[in-house]
Write a structure and sequence with these properties.
Chain B: It is found in: Endoplasmic reticulum membrane. Chain B: Component of the ER membrane protein complex (EMC). Chain B: Keywords: Endoplasmic reticulum, Membrane, Signal, Transmembrane, Transmembrane helix. Chain B: This is ER membrane protein complex subunit 10. The structure holds two protein chains of two kinds. Chain A is built from six helices and 62 strands. In chain A, a hairpin with a 5-residue loop joins strand 58 and strand 59. By secondary structure, chain A is mainly beta. In chain A, strands 48, 49, 53, 54, 55 and 56 form a six-stranded antiparallel sheet that branches. In chain A, strands 1-62-61-60 form a four-stranded antiparallel sheet, with no helix packed on it. By secondary structure, chain B is α+β, with helices and mostly antiparallel strands. Chain B has eight helices and ten strands. In chain B, the strands form two sheets. In chain B, strands 4-3-2-5-6 form a five-stranded antiparallel sheet. Chain B has a four-stranded mixed sheet with strand order 1-9-7-8, with no helix packed on it. In chain B, a hairpin with a 5-residue loop joins strand 7 and strand 8. The longest helix of chain B has 25 residues. The chains are: A mainly beta, B alpha+beta. At the A-B interface, strand 46, strand 51, strand 52 and strand 56 of A face strand 6, strand 7, strand 8, strand 10 and helix 5 of B. Strand 52 of chain A pairs parallel with strand 10 of chain B, so a sheet runs across the interface.
Chain lengths: ~950, ~250
């Protein structure tokens, strides 16, 4: 029992050492989180009270949120299921309530918009959703109508109960698309049969009885959605691009209804060739008739405000050019906001725009309503405009505008052109990222430059040294002055504004530039310390399904050459690639000549070979195994020729199950070296992972209990390959794990995890592989760890070569139960690899778990022995614990975490971590505690006073001793 | 259960080379025996000066199908021509490649066996020469028994530029051949852990001494200490200066 006690004590201390929680006063000191909502699909201002500052948004990421319109921060956010199930089909706002239709018309929900609480939720009948509309009666909005493919239902706004549901007549042939009501007791449902006729069905609001059903000949009609709208008192207005004319139809006319044909030419108008005209009308209140005025868009930049009066259409104002238009209503007034390029000569791509308000009923411009807006030259094109109008004290109309651009950015503008806030919603979908060291400050660079240059005379050198030291002195005095100046100000007023000019590397390289690539093709440069976006660059023409690979070709270390990043953008369908080369610190596109890539790219690798300007060589292999080097200067090609016989690469074809290795030849062609074929009928390759190139392993082996050394098998070319069985039956499904040498194609280890299935998350580092899978038999998530050892003797300790390691390594494996599913897995990384490793596990709950690698060690003994205790091995326990103090993001959950990026800092103890998904969270972790940093509360006073005290004590006692000696000598 | 526990209780669970069977082959061409060799697979090699692979027959692998996969090799001597060629290739740091067809090792699948590609591997020719043609060839199969890869290494594996007497050393291959099938990865070892816990519980149950709490064990030390502290505290409060002084004196 003594041994059990000791073992428990050992385990306790191990746990004690591993646990690292955040103290309350450390919250937000090293970490920050930013929350996003994704690309906005629906937006509405809460306009029911003057003081309201809410903006309600529903997004493509299935999120419903409320944004503070003063600051751009989120009041609250509801994250629904991803995919079709949580898709928000419609958003209708009335007063305090927001009604959402979710999941292709499956759910109807009403939210209280002040606090974001759910009022009610109703499950609706199946059927594909068409549209939803608020319905009023006698000036009060009471109902919401939901139109599906074959039925219409009316629900009470107050509790969601269904008032009635009716099947639509002939719904198998007629496409019903629009619901219209003006609060007079009828609900019109409009449907069409393309190129034939439209159907108008009027329902009684009280009982759903069909009051009227007419079908009107309309052989020109194709769709009701954008080319038709109800204008004025129940007049359906459609535009036909083919005959270039307008059609009007009185919906509630007695007797036989017929379209009235109004050619555009009679209004002196003409649609631009190839453009489908759009009708934009507005119904300010659901219980009242729509406005008589409407916009007709005749070209990408041409809008016309028209008025329908007594069946006749009259143009009010022609806006040419105009980018965007929107109606806004406040009180009884409705205004039209028009955004137009400021400089009339340069049109669509002009960067300065202005927004003006126009009176909707006359088309007159309202005075003092101009807002100038400068479009970001690195951003996307304009997409949509939302306007919040309000009445000022003098009864004139004021407004604020929200501009949505193609790069998913939201800009909130205030008169006379102040940007109140910008939300970069592209960051809700980060695909890949890198962290780049910041450059040295000007003075540091000055010193560096001195060493870099060739000597030009003694005197010049001395002068240069003196001048650079003067500059240093000046900078130091400036720094002291700033310290002094800041010290006098109250603490809260000291703001460390980070701008691109003040960027400089700090002492321990803890502040870095985060280069983030988002799925929409927008690149961001974010300061890792504060989370400030320092630059952004939108890549136009990026396909929505493109794959990205970001590589750092030249780091910041090679002054005066600027750092250089390269983004490889690959179209997933065609495989064609293109390169975007830029400076990661400033985001500027580089003007280097790019190689032409006419063939689909199969593989890309960054070689350790450097050009004269310290650019690492990027090698691209196309589908005919031809190699393109970038940069491809003479120097590079010469180096490639020399190194050719030692440059190997591999290709994976998961549809065939082949892994093949190639070698570069002197003429930059390639030759096939090896081939491993895993039959795709049995198992499919799902994951191939090598090790990170910037990883350092400090210790070559592990000291065992008997003082012998177990050497690690550190093969930098090792690939971990995971396969999943094609048979998905829980009894027969399996996961295959292969360790394959990427140079020789030798299968080092081959294991099969039976009764398991994916998705597999895997980390491959040092001499270990950790993976997580689903156990189909026990229905639980499990972790497994594989470690490779050479044994107690090293074959060749000086250098590792895949071609000269004949003995296969010993492979140890152990598995553990993990009590949670996981979203992503990554390992910490430090400068020299001395610090013990932790695994960072992104959980679906939004927590990031820092799991000590010590718990995932195949040498954990089942029976504790003297030797295992000597080695500090934790006794085996089948279940992996999840301790809440291991959550590095305490309560700052990261929704839908998709990836974790780790980067070493200048401090060996510290690893920088960025978790991204819907949110972005940045923090630092200290896997072995901060062994190389003094604590914040370190008592400098005490230690210096003790030192000083000792010094004086020595001086005094020395003096006393001298006196004493002298006295003794006299005696 | 016991059979499971046996290998796992050892500290070092080496999971490699479970299904291996080493066959050191002889130089002689062994007559293929119909009984113990179910089928044979050609083993081809290539070593060319221009490094364009032209595969020739090196020998054949005789595979015994069924549950216990075994393999043996029958191969001939290198001809005079080949020997010189190999030495030449080695002198320019060329490659020695081998290949085997993709086949299934399962005996019952032989009828549907067809060659739809090869598995290739290579080793530096100089390493083969300097190791005096002693190579280790491993065939890897998947769960279904199909060959998925082949690997060749020489022992020793380095090229040191040692001069080799061709007549003596480059005569015959000294091949070690093995088949590697996937090992079954372990699952969390819950049964043993529970058993261990139960044993511990039982032991505790048998030995009531263990169950005593901290206070139960050390009451004889704690009670006098608490009493003493209480006494001294009470005296401090009740008594004034003189008695307090006495108490303090006592406590010293």
């Amino acid at each position: 029992n003594m041994s059990a006690l000791v073992c428990r004590v050992v385990a306790f201390f191990c746990l004690l050492r591993a646990s690292a929680a955040v103290f309350e006063d450390q919250v937000g000191k090293f970490d920050w989180r930013q929350q996003f909502v994704g690309n906005v699909r629906f937006a509405a201002f809460d306009a029911h009270s003057q003081a309201s500052k809410k903006l309600l948004v529903a997004t493509e990421k299935n999120i419903f949120a409320s944004v503070n319109s003063r600051t751009g921060e989120l009041f609250w956010r509801h994250v629904d299921k991803t995919g079709q199930d949580g898709q928000i089909d419609a958003m209708l706002v009335h007063g305090q309530d927001a009604v959402l239709v979710v999941g292709n018309g499956r759910l109807l929900r009403s939210w209280e918009t002040n606090i974001g609480g759910l009022n009610w939720e109703v499950v609706m009948d199946t059927g594909s959703f068409q549209t939803a509309q608020l319905i009023g009666l006698a000036d009060i909005v009471k109902f919401v109508a939901v139109l599906k493919k074959s039925a219409i239902s009316l629900h009470y706004l107050s509790n969601g109960h269904q008032k009635w549901v009716e099947n639509l007549p002939d719904s198998d042939t007629v496409q019903y698309q629009t619901v219209y009501s003006s609060g007079n007791g009828d609900v019109f449902v409009l449907g069409l049969v393309p190129h034939s006729h439209i159907v108008v069905v009027a329902y009684n609001i009280e009982d759903g009885e069909i009051m009227k059903q007419v079908s009107v000949e309309a052989p020109w009609i194709t769709s009701l959605d954008s080319s038709c709208a109800v204008v004025g008192s129940a007049v359906l207005l459609c535009v036909d691009p083919v005959s270039s004319s307008l059609y009007t139809l009185q919906l509630n006319a007695e007797g036989r209804a017929e379209f009235v044909h109004i050619p555009l030419q009679s209004l002196d108008l003409e649609a631009e060739a190839g453009f489908h005209p759009v009708v934009i009308a507005t119904q300010p209140h659901p219980a009242r008739v729509p406005l008589k005025e409407f916009f007709l868009q005749l070209g990408p930049e041409r809008f016309i405000l028209l008025q329908l009066k007594d069946g006749a259409i009259a143009p009010l104002r022609d806006f040419n050019p105009a980018n965007l238009v929107a109606f806004a209503t406040t009180g009884e007034k409705t205004v039209a906001a028009v955004m137009s390029p400021k400089n009339e000569t340069v049109s669509y791509f002009s960067h300065a725009c202005s927004i003006n308000l126009f009176s909707a009923d006359t088309g007159r411009r309202l005075l003092d309503t101009t807002v100038t807006y400068n479009l970001d030259p690195n951003g996307g094109k304009l997409n949509r405009l939302f306007v919040l109008a309000f009445l000022k004290k003098d009864d004139s109309v004021g407004y604020r505008a929200l501009v949505q651009t193609e790069d998913f950015a939201l800009t909130f503008l205030q008169q006379p052109g102040r940007v109140v806030w910008v939300r970069e919603e592209a960051l809700a979908d980060v695909v890949t990222m890198e962290m780049v060291d910041l450059p040295l400050t000007g003075t540091q660079a000055e010193l560096e430059g001195e060493f870099g240059k060739k000597a030009d005379g003694l005197l010049a050198m001395v002068l240069k040294r003196l001048s650079s030291q003067l500059i240093l002195l000046q900078a130091w005095i400036g720094h002291l002055w700033k310290l002094f100046y800041d010290a006098r100000k109250p603490r809260s007023h000291v703001k460390n504004e980070v701008t691109i000019e003040t960027l400089a590397r700090d002492e321990f390289n803890l502040q870095k530039m985060m280069v983030m690539v988002t799925a929409s093709g927008k690149l961001f440069g974010i300061d890792s310390k504060s989370g400030t976006i320092l630059w952004k660059h939108y890549l136009q023409n990026v396909q929505p399904n493109a794959a990205f690979k970001l590589m750092v070709q030249r780091t910041t270390a090679h002054f005066p050459h600027p750092p250089q990043c390269t983004l490889l953008i690959k179209d997933k369908d065609t495989g064609l690639g293109s390169l975007h080369v830029f400076n990661p610190i400033f985001g500027k596109k580089s003007h280097i000549a790019l190689p032409t890539l006419p063939r689909p790219i199969q593989q890309s690798l960054l070689l350790p070979i450097m050009d004269q300007d310290y650019t690492k060589v990027l090698m691209l292999i196309d589908d005919q195994y031809k190699v393109t080097a970038f940069p491809s200067t003479k120097n590079v090609l010469q180096q490639l020729q020399e190194m050719a016989s030692s440059i190997f690469f591999y290709l994976v074809d998961s549809s065939q199950g082949t892994l093949s290795g190639f070698r570069l030849r002197k003429d930059l062609s390639t030759e096939l070296m090896w081939e491993v074929v895993i039959p795709a009928e049995v198992q499919k390759i799902t994951l191939v992972k090598g090790k990170r190139a910037n990883e350092h392993v400090h210790s070559q082996g592990r000291v065992m209990g008997d003082r012998s050394v177990l050497y690690k098998y550190l093969n930098p070319n090792l690939l971990a390959v995971v396969t999943e069985s094609t048979d998905t039956h829980p009894e027969r499904s399996f996961i295959g794990v292969f360790l394959i040498d990427g140079v020789t194609g030798r299968i080092i280890h081959e294991a099969v995890q039976r009764k398991a299935r994916g998705p597999v998350h895997l980390v491959h580092s040092e001499n270990w592989v950790v993976y997580e899978y689903w156990n189909t038999k026990s229905r639980r998530n499990e972790f497994s760890v594989l470690e490779q050892y050479e044994g107690t003797e090293l074959y060749n300790s000086s250098v590792f070569s895949s071609l000269d390691r004949p003995h296969p390594p010993q492979v140890l494996q152990q598995s553990y139960i993990f009590p949670s599913p996981i979203n992503t897995l990554e390992a910490t990384l430090t400068e020299k690899g001395i610090t013990s490793r932790h695994l960072l596990v992104g959980l679906p709950s939004g927590a990031i778990l820092s799991l000590p690698k010590m718990f995932l060690d195949p040498r954990r003994p089942e029976v504790v022995s003297e030797q295992s205790r000597e080695e500090n091995l934790i006794p085996y326990a089948p279940e992996m614990p999840i301790r809440t103090e291991w959550f590095i993001n305490y309560n700052q959950t990261v929704s839908r975490v998709k990836g974790i990026y780790t980067a070493p800092s200048g401090l060996e103890s510290t690893c920088l971590v960025v978790a991204y998904g819907l949110d972005i969270y940045q923090t630092r972790v200290f896997p072995s505690k901060q062994f190389d940093v003094l604590k914040d509360d370190y008592d400098y006073m005490l230690i210096s006073s003790v030192l000083l005290g000792l010094f004086f004590a020595t001086m005094i006692s020395k003096r006393l001793a001298e006196v004493k000696l002298l006295n003794r000598a006299w005696r | 259960m016991a059979s499971l526990r046996q290998p796992l209780s050892s500290l070092l669970t080496v999971l490699l080379l479970i299904c291996t069977e080493f066959v050191h082959c002889n130089t002689n061409k062994r007559a293929t025996d119909g009984q113990d060799a179910d089928f044979s697979v050609p083993l081809e090699h290539s070593f060319e000066m221009d490094d364009v692979p032209r595969f020739r027959r090196r020998g054949s692998l005789e595979v015994r199908g069924g549950r216990e996969n075994g393999v043996s090799i029958s191969q001939g001597q290198l001809s005079e021509e080949d020997r010189n060629m190999l030495k030449e290739v080695a002198s320019v740091d060329g490659l020695y490649r081998i290949r085997v067809p993709r086949v299934s090792l399962q005996a019952d699948r032989q009828s549907e066996r067809q060659i739809d590609g090869y598995l290739t591997a290579f080793v530096r020719a100089c390493a083969l020469v300097e190791s005096h043609l002693s190579d280790v060839i491993t065939l890897h199969s998947d769960v279904a028994g199909s060959l998925i890869g082949v690997s060749i290494v020489t022992i020793p594996g380095a090229c040191r530029g040692v001069e080799v007497e061709d007549e003596v050393d480059l005569d015959v291959f000294n091949t070690t051949l093995s088949i590697m099938a996937p090992v079954t990865a372990p699952v969390p070892e819950t049964a043993l852990f529970i058993e261990k816990m139960e044993q511990e519980m039982e032991r505790k149950g048998k030995n009531p001494q263990e169950q005593k709490s901290f206070f139960g064990k050390y009451w004889m030390y704690i009670v006098p200490l608490v009493l003493f502290l209480m006494m001294s505290g009470a005296q401090d409060q009740s008594g004034g200066g003189a008695s307090g002084g006495a108490a303090n004196g006592g406590s010293r």
